């Protein structure tokens, strides 16, 4: 996995769970849209887009607004699940 920052791959922290089929991804959201590329074996590269929004009145902060996986929205802050399952 690579976090793309200014067009160049950066690092992404990955924390594995007990099962090799599941993982958590932590991305330090610093942009309105953060792009992460993911390669699994010889399969085609996947692209995740993490879109944020500025919320809060006197103390604004970035909050996760939506996640897209290969062009399809898989999470929205308004009605999204707390866990997103991606099928490869």
Task: Please describe what this structure looks like.
The chain has 88 residues and is mainly beta. The chain has strands at residues 2-5, 8-10, 13-16, 23-26, 33-38, 46-55, 61-69, 72-76. The strands form two sheets. The protein has a six-stranded antiparallel beta sheet with strand order 2-1-5-6-7-8, with no helix packed on it. It has a two-stranded antiparallel ribbon with strand order 3-4. A hairpin with a 7-residue loop joins strand 5 (33-38) and strand 6. It is globular and about 45 Å long.
Radius of gyration in whole Å, from Cα? 14 Å
Percent strand = over 45%
* Strand order, sheet with most strands: 2-1-5-6-7-8
N→C terminal distance:
15 Å
Q: What is the succession of H and E elements? A: EEEEEEEE
**In one word, what is the shape?**
globular
Pairing-aware structural class of the strands and helices?
mainly beta
Largest sheet features: 6 strands, antiparallel
Average residue-wise pLDDT: 79
Descriptors for this entry?
88 residues, mainly beta, six-stranded antiparallel sheet, two-stranded antiparallel sheet, 0% helix
Question: Summed up, what is this model?
Answer:
This protein is mainly β and 88 residues long. It is built from no helices and 8 strands. Strand 7 and strand 8 form a beta hairpin.
List the helices and strands and how they pair.
Blueprint: E1 2-5, E2 8-10, E3 13-16, E4 23-26, E5 33-38, E6 46-55, E7 61-69, E8 72-76
Antiparallel strand pairs: 1-2, 1-5, 3-4, 5-6, 6-7, 7-8
